[in-house]
Amino acid sequence: MNRFLLPPALVVCYFSCSQKDDVVSKKVGDFRLEIVDSLQIDYLGNLRILDYDSASQSYLALGNRDKEVLILDSKGKITSTFDFPSDGPQALQGRINPLGLRDGNIELNNSSEGFFRYNYQGNRMWQYDLPFDYFYVNGLKGDPFYPLGHEIAFIRPQHGEHARDQSMKSVFEGIYGKPILEVIDTLSDASRETMPFPPSSIYSDGNFYFWMFPTVIQSDSEWLLYFRNEMKFWIYREENGEINLQKEVSLEVSDAIEPTWCSFRKRRRI
To answer: Does 182 lie in the same domain as 125?
Structure first.
């Protein structure tokens, strides 16, 4: 008896599964996976994106090789790749930091040499050697330099060979009080300082916090400054070649966790 019931049962099962598959396929067809905030980049290896230039709608990235540079379009396609030379008449021997894009060009600060500008094919377009010895106590982020009228502005470095032999205490006594930016006329080599250090910053309280990692952002005549581990930033205004403080903006974060290094400030005064 069971032998005669088996074929009808299989038929019913077949149509039942078919109808179920149709329902599932219809439901699945209502959904679509779409990547909207990522780039698909055809590159084998580790890739680090550093900057974006709205003028050329291009991204700047560093590749696997030493001093390997890649330019990508807004969809992630690699449009250019090259290596900064390590030998030869146009070699970049020092440390490249920072590195960024501006108006369709690559700009950088090379260790203690000065400032450089390259096009997207890796050709050097401009170079300016600073007329004094200088160094930074740590790495920088943001733009290597900023246009300021007929001059250029940049994060103020430490000057002179003798400064390298100073104690950490002496170095930071200057950093926590002097202006943020140095400005130089590339034709006359005349330099000056601007963007006064914000007096309301925790780094102005006379304690020792090491490097505060300043970040400067320029937007036309408005400039923005912020430091590491501080829940506020400062807005400056460009006026007649000077960068003047306008106001402080607090992030008003009530549950922020205070950095552990602040616990040493009462014992490590400068």
So the answer is: no
Q: What is the pTM of this model?
A: 0.79
Q: In the numeric block, which tokens belong to residue 215? A: 């970040």
pLDDT band at 38 (very low <50, low <70, confident <90, very high): confident
Q: How distant, in Å, are the alpha carbons of 102, 131, 225 from that of 253?
A: 33, 44, 18
What residue numbers bound the domain in which 121 lies?
36-129
- Same-domain pairing of 238 and 125: no
Q: Is 99 helix (H, G, I), strand (E, B) or coil?
A: strand
Nearest to 146 by CA among 187, 95, 107, 192: 107
Written as six digits, the tokens of 56 are: 């050329």
Q: Of 90, 111, 129, which marks where a domain is finished?
A: 129
Using CA atoms, how far apart are residues 196 and 245, in angstroms rounded to an integer? 7
Q: Give the whole-angstrom CA distance, residue 185 versus residue 192.
A: 9
Phi and psi at residue 188, to the nearest 5°: -100, -10
SS3 210: coil
